[in-house]
Structure formats: C-alpha cells, structure tokens
Amino acid sequence: MSQFIEPQPFQSHPDTLSRSELRKRLRQHRRELNFEQQQQAAEYLALNLLKNPDLHRARHIAIYLPNDGEIDPHAYLDIARRKGIRFYLPVLHPIHEGRLAFSPYYDGVELTANRFGIPEPAFSKGLRRPAWALDAVLFPLVGFDEQGGRLGMGGGFYDRTFAFSRIRPRLAPKLIGLAHDFQKVKKLPIEPWDVPLHSVVTDKRRYRFSG
C-alpha cells in the first residue's frame, strides 16, 4: 500500500496549530495499539453498533477501510451482512473535487489505492449510491467530545459531501463517527462547516447528540 498522505484542510479555513497538534497526538496514540488491542476494540465496537437504534432499520450503510490506527468496523460488517445489509466504500469523486461518491463493497471487489494511499473501489455511475440515498454513514474520527465536536483528518471530504444535510435534514443519512474511546477529549470547537453528527460509537459506549 502506498504511504498515507494527510489531506489538506479547507483552504479558506486552515487548521490552527492547536488542532494540528491535537490531531498529531491522537493519531500517534491509536497507531501505538498492537494487533490484539485493535482486534478487541473492533469486537466491542461491533457490539455497540449492533445495539445502536440509529442502525436498526438501515439497509444501505457507508463504511471505511481502517488506516492509520483507526478503529476497525469489519467485525460489525461481517455480522450485518448476514442480515442482508449492503455496504459501500467512499471513493474520491473524479469530477467534484473534495467530495465523495459511494461504491458497493462486497467480497472480491477490486480495490485500487487512491492518491492518499487508501484502497477504494472503482468509480461507477451505474453502481454508485448517492450520498442522500444512504441510510447511515460510519466514518472514522481523530477526536471528539461529548457535545458533538469532532476532529477529522482535516480534508473536509465528509463535510462537503453531506453539506446538504443542513438544508434538508430529512434527506440526510445517520452520520455516525467511530473512534477508540481514548480519542474523546474535553472540548473541541464546532466549526461553521462541520456537518452535525447523530452519534459517536466507540469500543466503550455510544454518545448521542441532540442536533
């Protein structure tokens, strides 16, 4: 796999030094987990996701391939697939710069590393699912707090892709951040461009937000 390259933040809203330093520290912490610790975290995460009411009726769910020490959602995926749930992976949109498309994720699907070194399926207009047609989106966080503040990698891909949820919230899928519980911090600023989360699920518990 190609070396991971951190995406750049919004050009009009550059990260502050404090956010950059916090991101660096939290990423280092999760990269230090060994295989057994990551596997145990994935199993506990799966249990908490299975109990999450936001997912009980979901049939089309976007997920991600863990990278850079991110908590692994595949234990949940393996169980949910047996219930007929369909999963999709984010794909860098080839036309709309800085946004994501979502392509089916199934056993045997061919994956190719994108410009950040992250494997993704091929972009296909016929197979991809529009962001508004997803029931839920599970995506990784670098940090979060109990008020709904969150810290991502700084690229803004999910914020751009789901910006429509501010205008038409009824069309929005459930946006659920995933993280190791130690990635919770005391307080993060909620930036104007942040798309609100419905919840954060970790290996320890679930945090729900009022909106």
What would your notes on this structure say?
Helix 2 (35-50) packs across helix 3. It is built from five helices and eleven strands. Mean pLDDT is 86; it is low at 1-17. The strands form three sheets. A seven-stranded mixed sheet has the order 3-2-1-6-9-10-11. A two-stranded antiparallel sheet has the order 4-5. The protein starts with 16 loop residues before the first helix and ends with a strand. It is an alpha/beta fold. This is 5-formyltetrahydrofolate cyclo-ligase.
Identify the notable features of this structure and list them briefly.
Rossmann fold; alpha/beta; seven-stranded mixed beta sheet; 211 residues; disordered N terminus
Topology:
Layout: H1 17-31, H2 35-50, E1 60-62, H3 74-81, E2 86-92, E3 100-105, E4 112-113, E5 119-120, E6 136-140, E7 143-144, E8 150-151, H4 157-161, H5 164-167, E9 174-178, E10 199-201, E11 206-208
Parallel strand pairs: 1-2, 1-6, 6-9, 9-10
Antiparallel strand pairs: 2-3, 4-5, 7-8, 10-11
Low-confidence stretches: 1-17
**Helix share bin:** 10-25%
The CATH architecture designation is: 3-Layer(aba) Sandwich
CATH superfamily: NagB/RpiA/CoA transferase-like
How many β strands by DSSP?
A: 11
Largest sheet: 7 strands, mixed
Series of secondary-structure elements, N-terminal to C-terminal: HHEHEEEEEEEHHEEE
Approximately what portion of the residues adopt beta-strand conformation?
15-25%
The CATH class name reads Alpha Beta
Strand order of the largest sheet: 3-2-1-6-9-10-11
Q: Which oligomeric state applies? A: single chain
Distance between the termini: 38 Å
Which class do the helix and strand fractions yield? alpha/beta
The total domain count is 1
Count of helical stretches: 5
Radius of gyration: 16 Å
Overall, the morphology is: globular
Mean pLDDT: 86
Q: Within the CATH hierarchy, at the fold level, what is the topology?
A: Rossmann fold
